[in-house]
């Protein structure tokens, strides 16, 4: 064994490799992205690794491999599970042969997501087990057990780390080398692997009979843990990172009973009942939904327990957002009657943290793309439908170029809806979508637009990477996660293949040409596409810098129009922050007196 200091996502990756995983697929999404990236940095001969075009594709690739007996891992964030839900719901009925673990990383806060949805709820909905690690160290060992449970019960299982587990660091003891799991290969059996109503009916009955057995199995598993067997009147239940916070607070109070629920579904009822012996009141600490709390309430009713259960439903724990050590300390001190005021540092006089709203990077080509459309459509009725990615930040002032943002790929189809309900169909409908998102979920929307003869302009902001989640490759970048140089998939060819006649590629940093292209596209009828192609400044490092000369008349148009963070005002004078500037030249093209030049 050797010791590695790794991020929680790295611990999950190494745990899967220690379990002998044979195939890993996924789609990047914070906070899960580093799992696949970690595996790519370790020797992984005999293991297939891929960024799939979306989560649905990733799950389906893994499903057939699991049918063959291979151990598979699928990674995504919680909203990605929505995309993968179609195959997952059927797979829950069909089952697997090789262990299949689906990592769905939840994002309390939410810090970088559209929703705060709770994967534990999804596990219950799909009727499959879910594992909820409380630390990176536990994630490493727990995911290995998850593969074992998957194979034991022939079912896919969910693995639910949250942001603070994914991004915490810890020392992990890992094997010197990783050996892929040996598997039989696919054995044809249409009665097992082809989903028909008769099979679904039989397997649903089997699942409902099996799940209580898994709950009993979980009750005897060391993953669910209680610190003392002594009967206590006050008992604390916790899951995920909230357990770690509670354990830290209670380190000087070893006689207070703290129960960890690491396998929320199927709920380990026997374990929970053993923890409740002698209890009069219970506090439940968990993030997002009151899942453990509700199961304890059901259990108390079922067993006729005279018990007070506190948590989110009683208002003692926040119903949304992250927990922290500080708020857990306050909740437990009140519940237990422990005075902690003397030990706390008075922060009442401390200054507030500065407000740092998210903003497009200095030199980001998306700023130029949005500005070109804004200039071309100035004074004209327009709808601007955004999407998920860096370019969502186009909604901020002064650009103000995203009227909507719903989910990945929705911008393309929502623009069509605006077109169809516009009273005179005179408003120009624009959809903004990134190159990675186009491959993930944008193409079907384009087909829908062509098929239904919509009048929309699709703006593909092609910066040659998946920038928002950490610059992962995609089908248009010419490389994959196996380290191969592959043929780039051409977005232009796809669009023309779908049937678009107007498809033009333009550099958004060539402002005049970009504006002209937008005007011509808006004037055409039907489905048009503009590919704004310019690399992300994080992957195309620039040594150029813009300079502001004495010709500057302090009109501040550059600040008012484009909002680049590299242009600042110091002592009432417009200045260029050369530490941020990339010399993209957009500000120079906006300046009315040619006071800005790029060197």
- On the 0-100 scale, what is the average pLDDT? 92
What radius of gyration results from the CA coordinates?
Answer: 27 Å
Low-confidence stretches: none
CATH homology-level superfamily of the largest domain:
Thiamin diphosphate (ThDP)-binding fold, Pyr/PP domains
Tertiary shape: globular
Arrangement of strands in the largest sheet:
3-2-4-5-7-6
Instruction: Please write the CATH class name of the largest domain.
Output: Alpha Beta
Helical percentage: 25-40%
By helix and strand content, what is the structural category? alpha/beta
Q: Largest beta sheet, briefly?
A: 6 strands, parallel
CATH structural architecture of the largest domain: 3-Layer(aba) Sandwich
Number of strands: 22
Number of helices: 20
- According to CATH, the fold-level topology of the largest domain is Rossmann fold
The number of domains is: 4
User: What fraction of residues sit in β-strands?
Assistant: 15-25%
Distance between the termini: 54 Å
Primary descriptors:
37% helix, Rossmann fold, 5-stranded mixed sheet, 6-stranded parallel sheet, 20 helices, 17% strand, 599 residues, 4 domains, alpha/beta, globular
Q: What does this protein structure show overall?
A:
The longest helix has 23 residues, at 197-219. The chain has 599 residues and is of the alpha/beta class. α15 (410-421) packs parallel to α16 (435-451). It has 20 helices and 22 strands. β15, α16 and β16 (456-462) form a beta-alpha-beta unit. It has four domains: 2-219, Thiamin diphosphate (ThDP)-binding fold, Pyr/PP domains (Rossmann fold, 3-Layer(aba) Sandwich); 225-340, Rossmann fold (3-Layer(aba) Sandwich); 365-533, Thiamin diphosphate (ThDP)-binding fold, Pyr/PP domains (Rossmann fold), CATH 3.40.50; 546-598, Alpha-Beta Plaits.
